[in-house]
Each structure stands twice: as C-alpha cells, then as structure tokens.
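Why run this: before we spend reagent on co-expression, it is cheaper to look at a predicted model of the complex and decide which construct boundaries make sense. The entries below are exactly what would go into the expression plan.
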Amino acid sequence: MIAEFGLVALWLAAALAGLQLVAGFFGMREGGEQVAALARPAALVQALLCGLSFLALIYLFATTDLSVKLVAANSHSAKPMIFKLAGTWGNHEGSMLLWITVMALAGGLIAALERRLPERTMLATLGAQGFLALGFYAFILFTSNPFERLPLPPVEGNGLNPLLQDIGQAFHPPNLYVGYVGLSVAFSFVVGALLTRQVTPEFARVMRPWVLGAWVFLTIGITAGSYWAYYELGWGGWWFWDPVENAALMPWLAATALLHSVSVLAARDALRAWTVMLGVVAFSMSMVGTFLVRSGILTSVHAFAVDPERGSFILMLLALYIGGALVLFATRAGTVAEGERFSILSREGALVVNNVALSAILGIVLLGTLYPLLTEAFDVRVSVGPPYFNPVAAIFFLPMLVVLAIGPLLRWRGDSFARIRIPVIILAAIAVVTLLAVWLLADIDLLPLLGLALAAMVAVGSVLPLRGRSLRRLPIAVWGMVIAHLGVAVALFGMAADTAFQQERLVAASVGDVIEDGPWQVELRSVKPVAGPNWTAIEADLGLTYKGAPAGEAKPQARSFWSPPTETSEVALVTRWNGQLYAALGNQAEDGRWQLRLWWKPFVTWIWYGGLLIALGGVLSIIGRVSGDLRRRVAARKIADRKADEEALAAGAGA
Amino acid sequence: MRVLLALIALALAAPLAAQDSLPPAPYAYQQLEDPELEAQATELMHTLRCLKCQSQSIADSDAPMAGDMRHQVRTRIAAGEDPEDIRAWLIQRYGDYVSYQPRVTAATWPLFAIPLALLVIVFFILRGRFARRSKGAGE
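The model came back. Tokens follow.
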C-alpha cells in the first residue's frame, strides 16, 4: 500500500509541476490573471506531495519491505536503523527521488515566501521551476521508478555491504544534492528575469541567498569528500582530479564565480548579462555532474552505449534546458543592457578578473574531464590527470589569487592606485619575502613554492579590509568575505605544505623495529588479531615519539569483512596542530615482517580547516544578507504603516 | 659506495629477490635507499594510472597490479633509467591510457590548444572590457 501511495503521490506531484508550468508561463501574459493565481498553490502542493512520496520511500526502507524491488536490492533487515534510512538515497532511484524532493521543497519555499520581485517575474520563475521539475519527474517515473514491486519477494535483502555503512557516505549525497538543486533555483530566477526583462539589482538580491546556500553545501561536500578519500583509500592522497570529484568541483567553480558577480549586480547594477550567463552555466554544471555520476558513462563509455536509457534521458534533459536557456539568453542578451560602467582599478574590475579566471578554470576542468570520454568513444584511450590539471589550472588560479589579495581593498566604481599603494607594496613584499625564504631554505617544486608565497599574501590581504574599521560595527557579510578569503589562504597553505614537505616511509618492519619519519619515531610494538561485528582484522600497535617526547600510540588495521568478502585498510591518524601522522598497515611478507606505510604530512589538516572556513564565511554572508534584508523590509513596512496612520488621521481630522 | 652496491644488486634484482624471502615484487611496498632516486620514482608513480582501479595512480593503490608496476618503476629508476624513458616504455606496453600526462598527438592536441585559446580569449575579454571603458571615461 505504502509503495503505491508513494507512486501515486509522485505522479500527482508531476501533474502539479505541469500545472505550475502552465500557470506560470500563461499567467505572466496579459489577461492571464486567473491562471496566474494557481502558480504558487501548485508549487506548494507539489512540494507537499513530493515530500510525502519521499517519506513513503523512507518508510519502506525503515520497515524493510522486501516486496519493493529497490529495498530488496539495497537493504537488509539486520542493518542498523540509521543505515536503513540512509539506504533510501544510497542508490540511483532513491537519490533521484531525493533530488526532485529537494527541488520541489525549494520551489515551495520561494512560492510561499518570495514577494520582492514583480509578480510577472515570479510567475515566470515558478513556470521555469515547474518546467525543470517536470523533466526530472519524467526521468524518475519512466526510467527509475523507486516503488517498483517484485512478483516474488525474497526472504532477505541484498544490501549488507559494510563498506557502504559509513556515516560520511550517508550524508554526502544529500549534501551535494542540496547544492546542485540550490543552483536550479538560481537558474529558474535567471530564466524568469530574462523572460520578463527584469535583470535588476533586486533580482540579484533575491537570487543571492540561494546561490550562497548552494555554494556553502557544495563547499562542505567537496571538503568532506576530499577528507573521506584521504582516510579511506589508505595512501594519503586528498585530491585525485577524479571525474567524480570534478563533477562536484565544476558546479562549485561556477557558483563561486556567480556569487561574486551577483554581488556586483546587487551592489552596483553592473555585469547584468554576465551574471545571467553564469546562472545558466552553474546549473548546467550541476546537470553535467549528475549526468557523469548517474549515467554510468564513467565506468565505461561502451557500457553506457549498450544500455543508454538513463544516460540518454539525462543527456536529453541537459540539451533541452541548457540549449533552451542559451537560446533565450541569445534572444534577450541585446535587451539586457550591460549595466553600470566601471574602470579596471575598482572592486568590480577585480571581480571581473575573478570571474573570468574561475570560468577559464571551469573550462579546463570540463575539457579534461570530458575529453577522455570523447576519445574513448572513438576507441582511443587517454588519461588526463594531475600532471595536466595542476599546471594548466594554475595558469589562471595563481593570478586570480593575487587579485583576491588586492581586490577587497579597492573601492567600487573606480579607485586610484595612489590610495592603495602602501598595502599593495606590503602584500607584494610578503609574497616576495616568503618566496625567497622558502626557496633558499628548502628545495621544493615551483607550484608548491608559489602556493606558499601566495597563501601568505592572501592571508594578510584577506584581513586587510578590517583595517581601520570598528570590528563591532562591521556588517556580518563583510566578516563572511574576510573569513572565506582567509579560508582560501589556509587551504592553499595546507595543500602547498603537504605537497612540498610530506615525508613518506614505506618499510617492512619486524616487531621491535623503530622507524624514523620526519620528526616522528615509530616503534612497531606488536601485531595482533582483533575482531568486530562483521570483520576480523590485524592490528598493529605503534608507539610514537615526536621530537624525542612520547606522543601516544597509533593502531592501524588491515580489515577483512566477510559479507561480502572485502579487504580494507583502516588508517590511524595522529593529529597535531601542525600536521598529521598517517599510518597504514599492509600485508605480511613471507619472511614474517609487516608492511608499514607512514607519512608525516605537515599542515595537511589545514586543507580541510580552510574548506570549513570558506563554508563558514558563506554562512555568515547569508546571515548578513538575509538579516539586512529583513531589517530593510521591516523598516519599509513601518514607514508605510506610519504613512497610512497619518493619512487616516488627516482623513479623520478632515471629516 | 652503497649506491654502487645497490646498483649492482639491482642489476641482479630478480634472482636476489627470489633468494631473499620477500614477495616477488619487493619494491611494491618498499622505498629505494637513495632518497633522490626515490623522489624521482615517487614523482613518476603519481603520474601513472593504476589500470585496475578507478581513477587512482599506482602510488595510491593496493591493487596487486599497481604493486607490480611500482616495483618495475623503482627497479628501473634504481638501474639508472630516465623517468621519461620508463613512461615511454609503459606507454608502449599498455597504451596512452597508463599515463596521466597526456602527450600531444593527433587525438589529444585540443587538450593543449583549447587552454591556449582560453588564455587568448581571456586576454581579449579583459582588454575589450576595460579598453573601451577607459576610452569611455576619457570622453
């Protein structure tokens, strides 16, 4: 019953998305007032129905209803409840239902709350949101029905894979999806603004919290994903330029560019066409990311070509939405005036450089990710990896960092170099001194060297906007900017320091051996078997000494799960403020010695602290913008009320 | 002189490894003695794809094949081979797919041409935007 209820709710929600589309697009025309009244209620009810449908699926997983194909394939009655629930979206069908649910809830939210834009623009936005949703409903209902029943329910479910029972894995996908879907709202606003020719600062202010919110979730998602790969894979790497990572990085790059240009539009009514274009690109990248991860094309282009149903459906949606938006943009670009003008030496000028550089990096990541897929289709297999991405992206990334350090010091519209000469000279001196000092003291590669110098420069540059201002009265949004920029410096420093100074020791050790790794001395004290609920493991007991002083112990394990049989390496991490000792235990050699892998990774944790700071900056920015907006609205209402009172008084006196 | 000894030993690596009771690929999980050679080997290994994994280099993988390839790389580096020669040898053996560093070929030139084109486009966008601007400001 519950499964059928969920499916019916989903169909009804799809129908309401259709209604929202019609009501929005016809309502915005002249004489469409009657249908227009339906758009907001349609969005609200759609959100409700889609939410119910998703709850139904959660219920089926919670109760392990094995007559449902998806549950039978992905769940098991013996799983802990939290992983039963997380199992709802740990598979293709469920994750797509989660995607559309987040989208419907976001649509409901703007329908219920957003009243700042002209009503016609809102109708067009809701219509566009309905149009987007309809495509995804069709995708789920026609190719990925999560509620499909089995004629003969199995006795037990199939999904006890312990590797997928990971709390990080449980929350990673929903987190990224919120990011992707937040960009879909920005996309709908862009379409609405283009259709009604209302690309205004007000439109930018309405869109900004959505862009910022999506960006915060994407930032957290990428940071968490990187740390997950770091401790799970067991070899100390934290970024692989893997297509799945790139699928999250590309929307992030576009969203980063978008949130900067949207700020220019909101503050100065400039960069109109560019902001609109980025809004289209950002959601396009979300869809490209979904396509890459969900179509199976990454595993093998040929497998994808043999069973292309889902992939080609997403590809079709992609072409429809992106193509449609670009055509709309092309026809309206002429009527969207460029906006206010400014000189290159201005805050806007710096933000344009940021935007162009981020877009170029995005182009390179997109090229490097898709190109091997393209050649594989023609039976030429090539790999594009770090030796390509790192230097090519750096060409644009490094100059952008210089501008990042200086840009926030500039005034809007136009500035003179004389005014900022002293801070610029200080910043340049910091970069040069760091560069020379590191170059003289350590023999490291060019990219980490430049990374260290620029990290120092950006760190100082990011806090310079606080100079000479009352810290208590500083707007929260400015704090957000300062902290996010500082986060960039912190993360960059972590990346450069780890790349340049990590010390690797791969040894075969007997019990009693002491291994030196950088400032650490690691003694293999014992190796013994241990057992968990569904695994057995060999655990090494490592006694640690840091610079001669005892520093605790580390217990890396080599684990074997028995259902399904899988070997994993459970690394031991010892965190200090200035880095991490990373220890992994390998197999036993024939002579009885154990393979130990040790890395001393100076400041590696700063990569993820930086990522979290960036996200925190985004959160502060949202709080600052939304609260400022609410204050303004309350003030406007008070003024309006007072006016009404005065008029009423005057009218009363007159009578 | 230890380097020299190591080199001689490595020339005979395979039979020695058999006598020593280490696994058949001792350099899969052990570093070279000479830190400079090891650094060369590590740098190269990070740019070679593990053919049995999804998007990992041979320096990031537990797969047996990655271990064998690490052993090959370290042995050859220790024998004094140039890293790029080793890469070429591996490409000859496994195809371009094994190297994360794409070569410029008939099939891959756009990978290099497009970033250059981007650079030119970026230059013209910025120049176009601001050259006009300053003229406009001058009027």
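The helical segments of chain B are 2-11, 13-19, 35-45, 64-78, 83-94, 109-138. Confidence is low (pLDDT under 50) at residues 1-22, 133-139 of chain B. Bring this page to Monday's planning discussion.
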